Amino acid sequence: MTTSPLPKPFHRILLTGAAGGLGQILRETLQAHAAIVRASDISPMAPSRGAHDEVITCNLADKAGVAALVKDVDTIVHLGGISVERAFEDILDANIRGTFHIYEAARLHGIKRIVFASSNHVTGFYSQDTPLDAHTPRRPDGYYALSKAYGEDMATFYFHRYGIETVSLRIGSSFPEPRNRRMLSTWLSYGDLDHLVTRALLAPDVGHTVIYGMSDNRDAWWDNRHAAHLGFEPADSSEVFRPQVECQPQPAMSDPDSLYQGGAFTAAGPFGD
Ligand code: NAI
Ligand code: 15L
């Protein structure tokens, strides 16, 4: 006897930032949750592999373009934007206006939930010996971090005003492996990223939930108690990489990578003097 596959929870998911490091991963894994994944970026993307895999080039700074992009979508995983520290003017269009355009399009098209890629850098100016949770006041470590803080506040506003739910993922360091000592605390494996986004899409009644995106790392700085309702249970740990990471020279105690949770981001800039 043949069994038919279970229906997927969404018809169409929009993924922004699909050409990026995390977007390329999620473009594959989101196929499990939707009949169609609509991948979008300003940069070139791998071509579509069929009707289930739409590809649309769009600049997030283009309000009308984003409104068209969101048409016929059920939910949005919003990763697109500048992902490192840059001058404010560079961040403004992609991250601040871009996220505004996503929320406005979501309002116009009746989208119920957005998964927003925030960043650990919204609390980057805390020292590495300070434990944090989602209720700790933010200390953004640059213009990039400020844009993510604004995105989180936008999520709160659109929930209270229009009922659009958001899970803001304060992603730590999501790469194939931790690259330095700091990332032994902040690393998020790609497998745990997939699980985190899955819970953010599927958990009921999230309102605006903020969660730090990290694997089950021994020396983590962050406590996700306020997001326990999401059911995120990381399976990986940076510990297996400790021997190879600790072969690297130890940064000085005065180095931002030793002092602050945001590491080198806290020392970027000033720009354009
Ligand atoms: P990435 O830089 O590889 O990807 C971001 C994508 O956004 C790029 O493909 C870029 O072309 C696109 N983009 C930039 N400006 C755009 C615009 N105006 N319109 C449309 N698309 C635009 O970054 P990554 O690592 O994949 O991160 C994805 C998201 O997660 C980003 O929002 C980043 O800030 C956030 N994040 C990532 C972390 C990580 O460890 N990978 C840590 C914390 C947050
Ligand atoms: C981020 O927000 C960046 O997007 C990513 O490239 C990493 O640098 C990460 O934070 C980190 O803090 O390691």
From TrEMBL:
Signal peptide: none annotated. Pfam families: Epimerase. The keyword Methyltransferase does not apply. GO terms for molecular function: oxidoreductase activity. Keywords: NAD, Oxidoreductase. InterPro entries: Epimerase_deHydtase, NAD(P)-bd_dom_sf. Residues 13-177 form the NAD-dependent epimerase/dehydratase domain. The keyword Kinase does not apply. Belongs to the NAD(P)-dependent epimerase/dehydratase family. This is NAD-dependent dehydratase.
